[in-house]
């Protein structure tokens, strides 16, 4: 057993750290650290910096303009980025669509779309969930009917994250209504500027319009935008979901969140002493840290297996489950740590809420928002109930 | 032994609920006598006991209603009445006057330490997270030497308001040589503060009950994999746990309501607020989770209930703070 990173990986970590120190604008890292919402331009700015270095698509092979990193290198990059409070790389084009096009797309589609993901010309969003198809994704009802050289698309997608910024959406659509649920689905690329598309924001608990509903009313989509074969979309969708699960443990986010929590707990006073010295609080903090240390090793053990050529299986469900539980526990303890400051609620959803800055340290307002927003962690990407089902079925054979 | 309510209490609860359903505002609640039901007969009201407070606030919590009843009446009028300020107390209870109570100071967490200083008849200091101060006719201010009454618009009184998680508003208050009148010792706070904690807990109980009902309905109607998700045993067990925890919360609120005027009050305040804070968080998190995405949205009626439950934990000391107080009170 040798649990240390190889000299090459250690050198890579040092290189990433140096790069982040040199090129990550303080303006952006400060907003990320305070969990403030980034503008579209700010997200694109960071993408451009990474793309210039050739590091935007660490998971893509070099032939497609990616960095061709190993699973361990990608983990190191994600972890260092989170610790430096770098903006998150948008997953929709890089982590989700890119790998699908590389494996199942035509040469024309690869040449047309992949460079535009890297250079920021396209902002993709994901058209999977529908009002009646959440955990039960295979029950999608949005239809695409062939009409000459086009498909005509009708229906509704929902929970479309940052869809308000997107100019393209990849969709699961039903092309054969007579087939069994999974067998009549196709994977279609749709230009969001097409006539007949309406985007309606959904305001979340924390007051942010982070997700959207997307309505399709007789939208014409060129048939050349079909990925792979008609009615084989479920295979591609599942392939995409396995890529969505990389970095699912969120070790970097948890580590950065824990460090922020400790900073707050040192600054807050309880009974005349720093809160971090309060035995009850210190015990709660320690339990989370111990859980995180173990989970980080679970994550590395699975990465090492992947590096040794094993295909990641249902174990990633355990990472999703435990990873989100730990991050939510950190959000909860941060909310507790700021004490009564958590009561203030600066929200775009509440009229007149933004006429004054909330009281207390800037971390305080962020604590409530982050707590509320991160309730989504155990719901999206396959809810934690779905993950438990997978663990019981695939790993235990129950 | 009787754990029930009087006919009057039950009737008031029912008419409050109907009024709130029709979107009744603070004035409509005053008309029903909600404020006077929170005051004892000696103080000019017709209630004021633990069960009265329980009935009114549990009903308000179910409706996620933002009202001045907690801060202006239970706390404000309660203090004024204890201080012998009968006229202003009655005006607050009937809704003619609005009282904001300025206890906490920036960075003091839940400790209740204050440094606001009285010199002659003038106060100087900073107060934090004061609910309802923007609409108040009077402020009660806790200073190092006791409680003081300040009139709205007084010289040197600065207010900076912002929204709260529970739908109300609070204010950062600055006092710079502000004219004030001393109304009594800080010990006058004891009973009104215990009553306010009962009110917050009863309010949270109402919000939890409503959140669990919404979730039960949702599990019966939402279909995935061709059947209602409530038919999955894993989710049935989660609902059973939720219901059992809410039953615990109910009994904890009853415990405090029954002991608010006994010698064992402090221990019950700590026990009930600690348990309620813990269960409120659990109910908020579980009901959101069991709804899935829809539970995350502002549009759905769970959102204000969930935020109200979070806010309940952070007011007047969170579950950990009261756990420590319970340990201290039990050791004494």
From TrEMBL, chain A:
Q: Cellular component terms, GO, for this chain's entry?
A: plasma membrane
UniProt xrefs under InterPro entries: Acyl-CoA_Oxase/DH_mid-dom, Acyl-CoA_Oxase/DH_mid-dom_sf, AcylCo_DH-like_C, AcylCo_DH/oxidase_C, AcylCoA_DH/ox_N, AcylCoA_DH/ox_N_sf, AcylCoA_DH/oxidase_NM_dom_sf, Mycobact_Acyl-CoA_DH
Show where the Acyl-CoA dehydrogenase/oxidase N-terminal domain sits.
Answer: 7-120
Which ranges carry the Acyl-CoA dehydrogenase/oxidase C-terminal domain? Answer: 231-396
Q: Under which name does UniProt file this protein?
A: Pimeloyl-CoA dehydrogenase large subunit
> Which one Pfam family would you cite for this protein?
Acyl-CoA_dh_M
Sequence intervals crossing the membrane: none
Q: Could you tell me the superkingdom of the organism this chain comes from?
A: Bacteria
Under PANTHER family, the record lists:
ACYL-COA DEHYDROGENASE, ACYL-COA DEHYDROGENASE FADE29
Write the record's keywords in alphabetical order, separated by commas.
FAD, Flavoprotein, Oxidoreductase, Plasmid
Q: Does the keyword Oxidoreductase apply?
A: yes
Co-factor requirement: FAD
| SUPFAM superfamilies linked to this entry | Acyl-CoA dehydrogenase C-terminal domain-like (SSF47203), Acyl-CoA dehydrogenase NM domain-like (SSF56645)
Q: Which residues form the Acyl-CoA oxidase/dehydrogenase middle domain?
A: 125-219
* GO MF term list: flavin adenine dinucleotide binding; oxidoreductase activity, acting on the CH-CH group of donors
Protein family: Belongs to the acyl-CoA dehydrogenase family.
- Organism equals Paracoccus zhejiangensis
